[in-house]
């Protein structure tokens, strides 16, 4: 690409607001990334600027001062459920954990998604029982979420996290034994890893360190016993697909395409859940 103000200067940076290519001479630091002089001039000093003139993320969301607002909420929800699991114990965990179809001796009843408890697909993505599992996932959510959330904007980032967690649970439900329990925010965290890969490529960053991190994460996924690799892979793939649709949607039909991509992932998850339910029942 060549700078829109200096056609003879090559650049790999775009304005975070209008996405025009800009060179180092034209870059103006913003809350997220850089803006071009035109966007700074039209948007600066106007607390009531028209919505079209407000700074936007690369996915079309509003640029916010707090780049971890949604991430903090997600961590707070995880923390609340973790504390409840420690205080209440097994009975609380058994009500929310991801399980397909099984008789639970603690509750004395048949439980699972196939028995109509679809909420488990979501609640299990926020539930932790072991301290190290909780800490590991929250560190990943904080670090990688701090990279992804400012790039997408709050609403799109929230949709990414929820769809990643749901997709991880859906793949667990589809592949794992019906009576095997699964819990944790790993699907969500791996969804953020998939999003980070897409964003790094879009920003033309050096992909070597990024792909090395992904490779190491997958090695740990498959090398450690007791890890729900289905949740990791499901979240990773969903996160990458959702983010690709969010950042590559054409500006003329951006929101329509973004809604369609998120809806498509949701329909795929629904299809997986329905097919597995039919097989189990």
TrEMBL record:
Gene Ontology biological process terms from the UniProt entry: proteolysis
Pfam families reported for this sequence: Rhomboid
GO MF term set: peptidase activity
Topology term for the membrane: Multi-pass membrane protein
Residue ranges crossing the lipid bilayer per the database entry: 69-88, 131-148, 157-175, 181-200, 207-223, 229-247, 259-279
PANTHER family named in the record: PRESENILIN-ASSOCIATED RHOMBOID-LIKE PROTEIN, MITOCHONDRIAL, RHOMBOID PROTEASE
Protein's name according to its UniProt entry: Rhomboid family intramembrane serine protease
């Amino acid at each position: 690409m060549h700078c829109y103000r200096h056609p003879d200067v090559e650049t790999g940076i775009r304005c975070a607001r209008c996405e025009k290519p800009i060179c180092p001479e034209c870059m103006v630091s913003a809350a997220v990334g850089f803006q071009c002089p035109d966007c700074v001039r039209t948007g600066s000093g106007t607390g009531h600027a028209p919505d079209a003139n407000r700074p936007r993320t690369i996915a079309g969301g509003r640029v916010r001062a707090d780049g971890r607002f949604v991430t903090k909420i997600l961590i707070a929800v995880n923390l609340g459920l973790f504390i409840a699991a420690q205080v209440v114990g097994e009975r609380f965990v058994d009500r929310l954990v991801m399980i397909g179809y099984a008789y639970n001796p603690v509750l004395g009843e048949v439980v699972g998604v196939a028995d109509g408890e679809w909420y488990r697909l979501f609640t299990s993505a926020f539930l932790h029982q072991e301290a190290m599992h909780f800490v590991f996932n929250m560190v990943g959510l904080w670090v990688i979420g701090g990279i992804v959330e400012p790039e997408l904007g709050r609403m799109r980032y929230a949709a990414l996290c929820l769809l990643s967690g749901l997709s991880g649970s859906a793949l667990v439900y589809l592949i794992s034994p019906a009576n095997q329990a699964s819990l944790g925010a790993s699907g969500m965290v791996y969804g953020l890893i998939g999003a980070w890969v897409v964003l790094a490529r879009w920003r033309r960053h050096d992909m070597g360190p990024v792909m090395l991190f992904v490779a190491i994460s997958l090695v740990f996924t498959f090398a450690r016993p007791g890890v729900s690799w289905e949740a990791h892979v499901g979240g990773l793939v969903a996160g990458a697909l959702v983010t690709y649709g969010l950042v590559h949607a054409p500006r003329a039909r951006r929101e329509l395409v973004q809604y369609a991509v998120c809806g498509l992932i949701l329909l795929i998850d629904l299809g997986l859940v329905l097919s597995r339910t039919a097989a189990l029942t």
